[in-house]
Design goal:
Helix 8 links the parallel strand 4 and strand 5. It is built from nine helices and five strands. 43% of the residues lie in helices and 10% in strands. A five-stranded parallel β-sheet has the order 1-5-4-2-3.
Length: 183
């Protein structure tokens, strides 16, 4: 073994331990030689990597809400007692037309002071299927994700991705009450 050849052979011991001092100085200089050193470094590196990976908790990606089409929204959800349509659009769009019976809970972005959709505003709908919609963009998707993060069962959350414009275009029922709107 190369590690012990220079440090502990018979010739070096007769010199009064000079080889031992040579070996120690190599460690001090940071240049130890031999296979045992390589094995120690390898094992230590593996240990460190294992410790780092064990310390990290796996990040579970947020589940996407169940996406439904306009046809599914009308046939499977519309008019059902255990379903609430949540319109996340601003007041002006909500007043211009909405799915009959929909509740207007504006949601812009997490933490926005303009959000009307909060954990408190969601409490009356506990245990019901929630269909989130907007104008066909991601606002309703983000609102659905917020509801999930507040503890709403993901099985009860649905995202009507196509949004209200497609609902109206298909000729499905539309409610419009401009005189009852706050704006």
């Amino acid at each position: 073994m190369r590690f012990h050849q220079g440090a502990f052979n018979d010739a070096s011991l007769s010199q009064g331990g000079v080889a031992k001092r040579r070996w120690v100085s190599r460690w001090v200089q940071g240049v130890p030689v031999g296979r045992p050193y390589k094995m120690v470094v390898l094992l230590f590196s593996l240990f460190l990597c294992g410790a780092l990976f064990a310390a990290e908790k796996p990040v579970k990606p947020a589940a996407e809400p169940t996406v439904i089409t306009a046809q599914e929204a009308k046939e499977k959800f519309f008019g059902k007692a255990d379903v609430v349509f949540i319109d996340n659009r601003p007041d002006a769009k909500f007043c211009d037309g909405r799915i009959p019976g929909a509740v207007n809970l504006i949601y812009f972005a997490p933490g926005s002071p303009e959000n009307r959709m909060t954990t408190e505003s969601m409490k009356p709908f506990a245990g019901k299927k929630l269909v989130f919609y907007c104008s066909g963009h991601d606002r309703a998707k983000h609102a659905a994700a917020a509801a999930r993060s507040w503890g709403v069962d993901p099985k009860l959350i649905f995202w009507f991705k196509e949004g209200f414009p497609v609902w109206r275009q298909k000729g499905y029922p539309v409610e419009k009450m401009e005189d009852a709107c706050p704006i």
